[in-house]
């Protein structure tokens, strides 16, 4: 095999790996984020009223649509990173800019999640909010290695 062909194959494999790792990192972050466990906690532990439950369902539907849009944007940013890696074959300015785009999309996902958490909190009564706040604090400060 010619050296140029070998370099192209290596670059494509590295680009695919970078996209895969970005997707895995985003998925793990999302799974460990506060909102996933909070939904179960809110639904099963806070004894919501019928009105609160209906409001929560609306919030969840809205967030699901926003989250899907943000995940699509993250996949696009990972695709741009893969393309930049194939083009530059090193950590150059295009790769660095693409990484910044991936981080930006991940930040957008985190911001949307935090906004959703506050929206969920807003439908709760004061006692439910205190329990919710404790749960949020525990979720955000828990060391998964423990």
TrEMBL record:
Matching Pfam families: Metal_resist
InterPro entries: Metal_resist
UniProt cross-references to Gene3D superfamilies, sorted A to Z: 1.20.120.1490
Protein's name according to its UniProt entry: Periplasmic heavy metal sensor
Native organism: Alteraurantiacibacter buctensis
């Amino acid at each position: 095999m010619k050296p140029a062909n070998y370099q192209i194959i290596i670059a494509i494999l590295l680009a695919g790996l970078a996209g895969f790792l970005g997707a895995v990192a985003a998925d793990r972050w999302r799974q460990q984020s506060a909102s996933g466990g909070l939904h179960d906690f809110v639904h099963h532990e806070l004894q919501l009223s019928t009105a609160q439950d209906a409001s929560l369902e609306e919030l969840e539907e809205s967030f699901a649509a926003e989250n899907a849009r943000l995940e699509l944007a993250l996949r696009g940013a990972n695709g741009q990173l893969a393309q930049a890696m194939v083009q530059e074959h090193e950590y150059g300015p295009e790769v660095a800019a693409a990484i910044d785009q991936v981080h930006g999309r991940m930040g957008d996902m985190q911001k949307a999640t935090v906004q959703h958490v506050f929206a969920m909190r807003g439908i709760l009564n004061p006692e439910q909010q205190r329990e919710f706040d404790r749960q949020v604090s525990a979720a955000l400060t828990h060391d998964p290695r423990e």
